Amino acid sequence: MKLKNLVALSMTGLMVAGMALPVAAEEAKAGDVNGDGKVVVGYISKNLVDPFHVPINDAAEEQLQAMVDDGIIDEFTGILDGNTDGAKQCDLAQDCLNMGADYVIILPAEAVASDPAVTALVDAGTKVVVVNSKTDSTDDLALTYCGSDDVYAGELMADYVMEKVPDGGVYVHCQGVIGNSAQIQRGEGILNKLDAEKWELAADVPCDWAADKAVNAAQDYMAQYGDDLKAIICDNDDMSSAAQQTCNEAGREDIVCIGVDGNQGPLAMVKAGTLGATVLQDGVGQVTAGIDAIKADIAGETVEKEYVVPFVLVTSENVDEYLQ
Contact at 8 Å (CB) between 277 and 225? Predict the structure, then answer.
């Protein structure tokens, strides 16, 4: 009897252990950072409307849905609208936590104001992938940063302006949202390269990435400086293309306007000869690198702290490579 009881107990123990195995396997599911048995990815956009971010969001949605279809993740939150507002992005970070997100991709609106979103997510144990521009704690806390060297973008713009106007003159700098890392670093790049002995800065004008504000700046400084105004350097292409069109309509095609992004509208202007150049930023490449980093982390592969997607100066000589 004792032997039979011992065998029975042993068999019962094996059955219990056997039943426990699937549970343990489920708890150890690859990518299940918070241990709730499923893998969820959150996506906090910068916004849903501007020409640079729309294709980024579309590409992210397509790729994340493919990860669901392929069984790599269980679900994603959809494309959450950051509304170019750091406070809104912080609220969305909490929404991602409430949805059980194991990973969150965020495209920050501002370096400082969006940073609490990153810190709150990391403090809760979520792995954060920062795309396109950095927050203050990105280098220390994020799983990875996927973007481009914005200082280099500013340097490319300055080099182009000096090539086109070797004698120098007065220039205006139309800035993006103040505090965004791209705004800060592109300004640094311009100052790194632009010859201070030949070029006079009329003003750094906060234009919030907005075309209408760049138009106002172009009109104001053409009126103030006349023929001495030789260039308008912009932190994005919405501003540069609008400023160039304003200058052209005023008979000032000689004013060199350039910006960053390489949206299809400005590329078409480069093709038509109404805009000299743009600095193309591969936003889809940036977010793809971020999604690939999540795939690698789920697979147990090494994820680098930073992935840099190169900027490209686009002129009439190479515009056909990028114009769709």
Answer: no
